[in-house]
Structure formats: structure tokens, C-alpha cells
Amino acid sequence: MPAVNRRQFLVGSGVLGALGVLGASAITWDQLHDAASTSPLPAGSGILVVLTMYGGNDGINTVIPYADNAYHDARPELSYRPEEVLHLDGQLGLNPALKGMAQLWNRHQLAIVRGVGYPKPDHSHFRSMDIWQTGVPDEPSPTGWVGRWLDATGDDPLRAVNIGSVLPTLAIGAKHTASALDPSSTPLSAQLKTELAGLGAADPHDTATQGFVCSGYRSEQTVSQAFSSIETVGKAKAEPKAGGNPLATQLNLVSQCIKAGVPTRVYSVSLGGFDTHADERHTQEQLLGRLDEAVTAFLRDMSTHPRGRDVILLAYSEFGRRVTANASQGTDHGTAGPVFLAGSQVKGGFHGDEPSLTDLDNGDLKSTVDFRDIYHELLHRVVSTDPTPVLGPNRRDLGLIT
């Protein structure tokens, strides 16, 4: 590999990514328990796992209004018959792929927040996801909601970790970012680590941007040491198998980190592919099946560990889909949709009003819950922080956490 000078290093993510340094590529598997033993997460500390479903999941075929004739009329071939649905009550049921989540519901460990959205919804994947991840619907924001929490509460790079080499917008603050941990990365050579460490040292001549890049790299080295000895549970368990479930791989790694006592309060994982403009039933059932398998296995694993009681999982997508099916047996970009919270501390059941399928906004559902109120409660009740510096004033808890 050619030598890297300081100017190239300070270019930022392009060079770092090519070197396998940005995010978790520098993480080895040798020293996790050393770091966890010196600064373990205190018992009883809430742990939030944020699961992003990229692509705009069709909430209407996820939490299905099977008893509503308007549902069947709008989707004569795409709708599910009542006998196909996993009934939650006399009106609504889960997609048949969500059998494990139906069991969580029966154990009162699944909260479904209905009709979640934001004012003046945007149908663009990029803009809508940006709104959800920044928590700022009114104007573009350079920082994410988790990033602003990091800015407000300190500089420990272990407080928030994204599983994967690319940080999502939600994890980026003005002063601090979450760290990224990539279980499939290849460790750097000792020589290159030494060279990069020197290039990442603080320099009084650096601009603010250059200092941010160097600070970020030094944080990644802290994370590298802290997460390195996850080998104690076997690196093979954290690596995806051919044809396996990528979300299960991510959540398995989160589970091992939690059990090891790593002082992380927020983890971020993701599953993509939900942009179902055609052949929706088959595609969405496959994706929801992966989500169900991964989430229920993760929570089952957590239930056997003392720290499992502290874990809350949030699952959301950037928007729902339109009520009426399109000509390709799919659905187009919509607005409001359901949000899931799971864990032993959630107040199981429905929250928020079910949007009408006939009283629409130009073919779209009208949202009944602002997503920022969900974030407010998670910050307040799970992460134990004041949500106002992150979300601004006039937000409230919804009673989602017992």
C-alpha cells in the first residue's frame, strides 16, 4: 500500500474508507474485555437499539387493517385475507411473516405506535430519511438526533455505536459522532496502524475541519481497543454466512457487546430493500421475515442475561406507502406508518390513533403521532437525558415505557 501523507489523511472519509479505517474497519478482536472491565456500563443503564428499515416499509401490509373493507377495496389483489393475518384484535393483525413479533405482542413486550409521521411529509427517500434521522422536519440539519445527544453529554466514543462501516446521519453531531463497528472488516497491519496514529495526532495548524477528522480517527482507535476481544464468543458468530440474515448478524454483535458490558448506550443497525413498487407481497414478506427472525432471536437472547431488561429496540422506516396499490402489484411512496418498540420495559399494545383509509391527504394517510415524541420518550426514559437540547421544546412522552 502506498504511503499516506498528512494532507491525504485529512481529506477525510474517502481516504479513510479506502484504508479500511473509517468506522469499524480498524477494530480487531483482541481486547474487548479489558476495556469493558475498566469502564463497564453500570447496571440498570438503559440501552437503545435503533433499527432502520430503509426503503419505506408498507405499514398497511405490516399492521394490517384486515376488518376494514376500504383496505380490501384499495388493494384487491395485494391485500391479505382475514384468515392469513396474525390477529392482534378484532380490527388489526400482523403480516404473516411476523410470527415471532406476534408472540412478543402476546407477552406484552411489543408496542405498536400507529400513524407515525411528521408535518408536511416528503415523498423523497433521501429527504424523508434525513428528517427522521435528524429529527428536524422544518429545514435541513447537519446533525442527527443521536449525534446531538452525543454533543450534549460528552466525548466518550463508546456511547453510541453503528454496526457497519458507514455512519448514518442520525449518528453525526456537530462535535462528536457515534463510532462504527464493521464485523466483516480486515485488520490493518501494525505498520499502517502506527503511521495512521501519527497522522491523526493533533496539530495546532489544523483547521476546525481537519481537527474534527483527526479527533474522529482517535475516537475510532479507542473503540477499536474496546471492541476487539469479541473473539471470546467467536468471530465466526459475528460474520454473515452465505445466504444468511444480515440483520441477525448485526444484532448478534450487539448482543455480545451488551453481554460483555461495553459502555454503549445506543446501537444502530439496519435492513434495506423495502422500496416495494412491484411484487410487494413476496418481497415484503421475505424482508419482514428476516426482521422477525433477527429481532425475536436478539430479544430472546437478551432475556436470558441480566442486562436484557435494560434493552429497548426501536424499528422505523422513513415513510409508509400509499393506500391504493399500483398497477405492478406494489405500492408507491406514502406518508405515515407504524413504529415498533420491543423489550421487557415497553408498555405493550397499541399507541396512537389508527389513520383512516378513506379520510386521506391526496391519497396518503394522515399522521396521528409525531415521531419526535417517540424520540423524546426514548431519550428521557431509556438514555436518561434531557430531550430538549436534542429535539427542542414542546415535545412530550407518549407512555411507551413502563
TrEMBL record:
Highest rank taxon of the organism: Bacteria
Listed InterPro entries: DUF1501 (IPR010869), TAT_signal (IPR006311), TAT_signal_bac_arc (IPR019546)
Protein name, per record: DUF1501 domain-containing protein
Taxonomic lineage: Bacteria, Bacillati, Actinomycetota, Actinomycetes, Mycobacteriales
